[in-house]
Design a protein that fits this description.
seven-stranded parallel β-sheet; Rossmann fold; 2 domains
């Protein structure tokens, strides 16, 4: 019987990370039914109740060291933990947990992560703090190349994000949100704050208006990151001539159902795009972070990004043309995503194969 400790951005109410935790817990239980699970969480009581796991406070280093001492395997992930675009402090926290586990002679695994962006100091932290990690899986080819260079003695495999295994329930009633079958087609829009894309409200607002005026598709904003995403959505809505709606915050299951039922998705949040791909819903991506571009590249997605960090703001005609392609080529895009599904689901399952190999080693 293995005891597994999960370290990630858990307990903050972020849709992507809570969906990740739900999938990871469910699949570890399915694959290793005798395992015991403990999670480092910002809200340990809530996490313990929601997932029926043990949970420890993520800010208390005494509690963290005790949790590591209890564990047989320490997982870092999933998500984008090993990066210092957020802050060097964040990177030091996650890398520090791995270092503590390695020093305690626990089995360690970097689990289904995107690696980077990392500057010079960030690369040094990963190279020195994470040296000795037993196994690593990453969710895109760019991350595989980077991590293999930084941790030359750690086997690194490219897999896929575990949220590709997420099963949204089919009994979620969306009629009270105006998204029932009788209400007509809708686009699900996921935005987040992005200082690097200052004109995002105007650009995304143009896309939303084009969907409404040219194609008769109304837009519903889903705030997957909580209040900050709701504020970003409000900025876009103010820039619109049409009348999109901002949906109330909801559970991961309901958010996934909204994305699955959409005619198209326009998204910044990685996990909005992952679930769109999971359910073969054509999407238009805004690449605020390299992990979004990496997802599109690994899916070999035919539609260019609406906008990417480092590029000039797209012209209005270019925005209109991409929205028209999203709608007009919808069936082709659906077919492409459907054809990718078997491969990408198998890649997501591989994370748990590698964990099993580590447990049995």
């Amino acid at each position: 019987m293995a005891r597994v400790l999960l370290s990630g951005y858990y307990g903050f109410g972020n849709f992507g990370d809570e969906a990740l935790l739900e999938v990871i817990v469910a699949n570890i239980r399915r694959r290793f039914p005798s395992s015991q699970l403990e999670v480092l969480s910002a809200t340990p009581k809530a996490t313990a109740a929601a997932h029926r796991v043990e949970a420890a406070p993520r800010w208390d280093w005494r509690a963290i060291r005790a949790a590591i001492a209890r564990a047989d395997v320490v997982l870092s992930g999933g998500g984008g933990l090993l990066q210092n675009a957020t802050s060097l402090r964040s990177l030091l926290y996650y890398a520090g947990i791995l270092r503590e586990a390695i020093r305690a002679h626990r089995k360690t695994m970097i689990f289904a992560q995107s690696i980077g962006p990392l500057d010079f100091w960030g690369r040094l932290v990963v190279h020195y703090f994470c040296a000795g990690t037993n196994r690593a899986t990453v969710r895109d080819s760019r991350s595989r190349l980077l991590l293999a260079k930084l941790l030359s003695n750690t086997p690194v495999e490219q897999t896929a994000d575990p949220v590709f295994l997420y099963e949204a329930p089919h009994d979620v009633d969306l009629r009270n949100d105006g998204l029932g079958p009788e209400s007509g087609p809708y686009a699900a829009i996921s935005v987040r704050p992005s200082p690097a894309l200052r004109d995002a409200p105007a650009v995304i607002g143009r896309a939303v208006d084009r969907l409404a005026d040219r194609h008769g598709i109304r837009s519903a904003f889903v705030a997957l990151g909580g209040a900050s995403d709701a504020a970003a959505a409000t900025d876009v809505i103010r820039a619109c001539k049409s009348s999109p709606v901002l949906l109330p915050e909801c559970t991961p299951a309901k958010a996934a159902s909204i994305l699955r039922g959409a005619r198209v998705v326009v998204g910044m949040r990685l996990h909005a795009l992952i679930l769109a791909a999971r359910y073969a819903v054509p999407f238009l991506a805004i690449a605020y972070d390299p992990k979004v571009s990496a997802l599109c590249d690994d899916l070999r997605y035919p539609l260019p990004r609406l906008w990417s960090v480092g590029e000039r703001r797209p012209l209005d005609d270019a925005i209109d043309a991409l929205v028209d392609r999203l709608v007009d080529e919808r069936e082709t895009l659906r077919s492409h995503l459907s054809e990718c599904r078997e491969r990408i689901v198998a890649a997501a399952e591989r994370n748990f194969d590698v964990l099993g190999e580590l447990i049995d080693a």
